[in-house]
Amino acid sequence: AQSVAQPEDQVNVAEGNPLTVKCTYSVSGNPYLFWYVQYPNRGLQFLLKYITGDNLVKGSYGFEAEFNKSQTSFHLKKPSALVSDSALYFCAVRASNDYKLSFGAGTTVTVRA
Amino acid sequence: GAVVSQHPSWVICKSGTSVKIECRSLDFQATTMFWYRQFPKQSLMLMATSNEGSKATYEQGVEKDKFLINHASLTLSTLTVTSAHPEDSSFYICSARVMSPGAGLTYNEQFFGPGTRLTVL
Questions:
Q1: What residues of chain B lie within 8 A of the CB of A101, using their CB?
Q2: Residues A91-113: pLDDT tens digits?
Q3: 3-state DSSP call for residue A109?
């Protein structure tokens, strides 16, 4: 069985400050890891993914995430948050030999001006 | 990237009626599509896997007679909520699975539609 944990329901930061959204996972075999962002009444927008290679993955809108195998983590980061980054963020995982995605519960990010 | 569309984007219906939601992969073929349900401020829950030319596979606890899925072509899957009731009100999201990698697409990667907001009165 595979699962994702996003330990924080909400993250609040001031604009211009660093933003971190935490994610840990559990999966059999090699993990494929994803981050998505969702704005109200919208579908999921892909931010970035880790398949293989460099542990630091760079994605859309200045976001990046670091894969840490020993800690089974894939935290999302942005050096300088914008008010427009306020949204719901989902971490997801699947095994390399499977197609089903498992999602975390989501973290609501609020960036205040 | 690959584009997945959903229609309609929102629908309001009376209790007891049936509602059909379409999911289309616009620029790639998808032998497998997925239907998710999302309650307010909650995560996506996989309802079923839609396979082109065969029966859908439903997740545990999802009523297959309630949520009819048809995947008649390589680019279209439909979800019909039959005899809808207020508790069926939700945000329904589909995704399509890449079967032919290339042009930046990874095998088994999923692309998500924009979602359909269903409100049953």
A1: 34, 46, 95, 110
A2: 999 988 888 899 999 999 999 99
A3: strand
Smallest CA–CA distance, residue A104 to chain B, in Å, is 7
Alpha-carbon distance B74 to B101, whole Å? Answer: 15
A18/chain B closest Cα distance in angstroms: 24
Cross-strand partners of A10: A108
Nearest CA in chain B to A104: B43
Q: Do B112 and A99 touch (CB under 8 A)?
A: no
Place B1 in a pLDDT band, splitting at 50, 70 and 90: low
Model confidence at B120, pLDDT cuts 50, 70, 90, reads very high
- Per-residue confidence band for B36, with pLDDT thresholds at 50, 70 and 90: very high
Nearest to B69 by CA among B85, B84, B83, B53: B53
